Amino acid sequence: MSSVESHQEQLPHSDPTPSPNSCSSFELIDMDASSLYEPVSPHWFYCKIVDSKETWIPFNSEDSQLLEEAYGSGKDCNGRVVPTDGGRYDVHLGERMRYAVYWDELASEVRRCTWFYKGDKDNKYVPYPESFSQVLEETYMLAVTLDEWKKKLESPNREIIILHNPKLMVHYQPVAGSDEWGSTPTEQGRPRTVKRGVENISVDIHCGEPLQIDHLVFVVHGIGPACDLRFRSIVQCVNDFRSVSLNLLQTHFKKAQENQQIGRVEFLPVNWHSPLHSTGVDVDLQRITLPSINRLRHFTNDTILDVFFYNSPTYCQTIVDTVASEMNRIYTLFLQRNPDFKGGVSIAGHSLGSLILFDILTNQKDSLGDVDSEKDLPNIKDQGDTPTLEEDLKKLQLSEFFSIFEKEKVDKEALALCTDKDLQEMGIPLGPRKKILNYFRTRKNSMGINRPTLQSDSGANVSNIPKESDFCSRCDGTGNDDYLDVGIGQVSVKYPRLIYKPEIFFAFGSPIGMFLTVRGLKRIDPNYKFPTCKGFFNIYHPVSNGQLLWFYLNIRVY
Q1: Span 384-404, average pLDDT
Q2: Strand pairing of 125-127 and 89-92?
């Protein structure tokens, strides 16, 4: 017995047509349909979980066509990967799953959709599974070819679908009868509309994104896991940013885009909150959190305490390491996936995220020249006569442990970040551990935080370790204004090196001024500039289309 015959049955001719009441929601059109069968055009969808509810979202037309071409190529779909959504997601055809490329996200189910039914609580259409859609299509083909309608099919979920004619097809939920020994499902209850082909349902399908990318922007979030008053994640908010940017291309740069004079701006999120709170600090906080007003205390622990974490040497190091390493990792991965990319890179931070970026940029070095020529280097070492790790260990009379560090690929920078527990896990005894940790701690405190070389008014180089007259001013009570280092008052951490030079730094709703004031600074020298970033815009008014256009124009200019 064929798959069609196992799912369908011919309704008796005496079976009455649906009553006007049951069909009141359907538009009855002229039933004169051509007997010529035309295959249905499939479209690809993916499933997103929104508020614990499944929502099926169509791929844009270009991505759906790419998926269909890969599906119909005749090759084995297992192991076949198709980039979608501008390269931010990969679809594994064999698994029928969609995976995020640059950030962590639950995988989404993917379907090749041809038949749909209207959902229960909303007007959105839900695609049938691919196997049952094929059964529906075969039944429809026989009905059109033989002009025999009123076909009844039962889905794997015991739901009933009746094909009355090409324009009227309904779906019924199963309603059990009074026989507790197992009654057959009936077509009672409110019927749902069944549609064939994506062109017959109400859904927005976008054309797709321009392939050419002119600029890359990393967006760093502020405190807490939610990034706006709607409690959306950084990924969702950046998606909105990207959508508005694409709309601006259509409304303000349409002709230039059609002539391929410009491409689009790619926005990618950088998440540091999840790695910070996965260190076990939440467990420690829970032990000291009182049980009263539980929701408020939980909200405080998850959001506001991020400010205190950033002022802690231990967790500040975790935060800056996470932000810098994530931007370096995403940048490297982006270049691998977009080898023809020749555009610039900018960074944007919201709230505390802008302060994190400000501190990282302030502590960059430009002594190695053009960083762009060293894109593929994961670590960039300082120049000069700095002793090697082997020389440091020899000085401490611990040369026998150099082979252990060499085996674990631990250099001086990595060793400076190691804790006592890390050294213990490498098999270093207690005495040498204390010597090593004390040596690097003393060395860090004696050297201070590395600062970039600045130019004095006469053009001569100023020392890497600035005096209290370099950057910012404070009144000393005598009427004289002295310039102080921007980083004074900040906790002592080792700032990682970015493997690229940002062109512009955008700060949204930034507390930089407040934090610099708390650190004891009055103002920044008007001539001060970041060592590796030539542009800085502090955007402190609400973002609207006008301000975002201004933001986009600045990216184009730079």
Answers
A1: 81
A2: unpaired
Q: Which of 302, 297, 282 is nearest to 227 (CA)?
A: 302
- Between 382 and 418, where is the model more confident? 418
Q: How do beta strands 481-484 and 8-10 pair?
A: unpaired
CATH ID of 390-444, from 3.10.20.30, 3.40.1390.10, 3.30.365.10, 1.10.150.50: 1.10.150.50
Query: Which structure tokens are listed for 25?
Result: 């929601």
131 included as an active-site residue: no
Q: pLDDT of 308-366, one tens digit each? A: 888 888 889 999 999 999 999 999 999 999 999 999 999 999 999 999 999 999 999 87
Q: Which of the residue ranges 148-152, 181-185, 205-209, 288-292 would you say has the lowest mean pLDDT?
A: 181-185
Is the alpha carbon torsion for 81, 86, 89, 93 positive or negative? Answer: negative
Question: Cα separations (Å) of 28 from 20, 146, 147, 168, 329?
Answer: 11, 22, 18, 7, 57
Instruction: Go through the chain and tell me how many residues it has.
Output: 558
Q: Spot the catalytic one: 108, 351, 354, 510.
A: 351
Sheet holding 213-220, edge to edge: 264-270, 213-220, 344-350, 504-508, 535-539
The per-residue pLDDT for range 532-554, each reduced to its tens digit, is: 999 999 987 655 444 444 454 45
According to the model, what pLDDT value does residue 175 have? 64
The letter for the amino acid at 496 is P
**R_g (Cα) of the chain, nearest Å:** 31
CA dist 201 → 77, 123, 228, 253 (Å):
28, 10, 32, 31
Distances (CA, A) of 341 to 83, 88, 245, 270, 553: 16, 15, 19, 20, 20
- Domain boundaries, given as residue ranges, for the chain: 43-175+188-196, 213-364+495-539, 390-444
pLDDT tens-digit map of 91-141: 999 999 999 999 999 999 999 999 999 877 777 899 999 999 999 999 999
